[in-house]
Amino acid sequence: MAVKFGFWSEQETLVGQSYARRLHELVEEAVFAEKMGFDIVSLSEQHVALGGISSSAPEVVYGYLAAVTSRIRLRPAVSLMPKKINHALRTAERAAVTDILSNGRMELYCGRANTTIAMRAFNVEPAETLSQMEEGIALIREAFSKDIFTFNGEHYQVPPRMLVPKPLQKPYPLMGIAATSERSHVWAAHQGLAVLSHTLYQGWEAQAKMVEAYRSAWRRDPNGPLDRPRLGMPVFLGIAETDQAAKDIYAEPLMHYARISTDAYPRLAKIADDYAYMGEGLEALQRAATDWDYLLNDSASLVCGSPDTVIRQLERFIDAGAEEILFHIDSVSHAEIMKAIELVGRYVIPHFNDRNNVVRPTDEILEQIRMMRKTGPSA
């Protein structure tokens, strides 16, 4: 099976630049990603974020992208499921309409929220985010798949109603979750959902454990769209013509992003039992924020270098079980993002998806021809 590649953005806007201009740049990047052979465009949902991350309404962007793209699939990374941020039925309605307008290209990946800034702004109780996500997903699946549905849960009580309109894809669009704990991987597997798997910089051993937990626990939902496990991995990307150029451009932005992320996780671990796992492995989190060699080689979270180097590094993610790679290309200028999309589309995607169409050195081909002459029937 060919590996799927995605472009993942949080619409990060650099200091001194315009949020409005950045949004138009994001659209240009998504359209260009489709042209360069990417399979998925994936937008984060972040609210009242400090600094440059500004993807507050990805559902609006998807409606726009549905009109200016024709092939690339549209996937939130992720739709936030706390009830006070997004009522599950509103999430279902938006996804269904986008699926229709995009002619069946919408996917729906959900998550529980991972910033206290957003949770406090919307008066979300951290101890309820996990149960609201799981119940919300169950409600969406009922609304998608049944003509008349009803729902009676802890957080949602819906009398007999009809979702209007229903999604174009049947039985409904691909659904999954972002999972960073073993528990979430197992829960998604039991539900027959897809997974976007990340270990919070804990490394390859932890990643292997998550993959095994998901694959071994997966059960097909006879009423769902998946007939087998679907596992993707988010990968932070730095790419340029040479290894040194990639490091010069991307090392500091990638480490800065790791510092921001790792600073949030220990705080989240203290506010609710469901987030307690984020406090485990603090040494690895700290190393990811301060040690470039660890971040690049051992954290199972990023690739950085020339196209050849990136290809070699990606082999490890694919060997670890990734069927989809979502490249996080952000934290640098629009020009660098466009260059990264081009390099991935020109060199990386063809290498994995159509190697027979990748130009190889003439000497290498001639050597293979000579060997076949020596061993073939006409030798």
From TrEMBL:
<dbReference type="InterPro" id="IPR036661">
    <property type="entry name" value="Luciferase-like_sf"/>
</dbReference>
<dbReference type="GO" id="GO:0016705">
    <property type="term" value="F:oxidoreductase activity, acting on paired donors, with incorporation or reduction of molecular oxygen"/>
</dbReference>
<dbReference type="GO" id="GO:0004497">
    <property type="term" value="F:monooxygenase activity"/>
</dbReference>
<feature type="domain" description="Luciferase-like">
    <location>
        <begin position="4"/>
        <end position="323"/>
    </location>
</feature>
<keyword id="KW-0560">Oxidoreductase</keyword>
<dbReference type="GO" id="GO:0005829">
    <property type="term" value="C:cytosol"/>
</dbReference>
<dbReference type="Pfam" id="PF00296">
    <property type="entry name" value="Bac_luciferase"/>
</dbReference>
<protein>
    <submittedName>
        <fullName>Luciferase family protein</fullName>
    </submittedName>
</protein>
<keyword id="KW-0503">Monooxygenase</keyword>
<dbReference type="InterPro" id="IPR011251">
    <property type="entry name" value="Luciferase-like_dom"/>
</dbReference>
<dbReference type="InterPro" id="IPR050766">
    <property type="entry name" value="Bact_Lucif_Oxidored"/>
</dbReference>
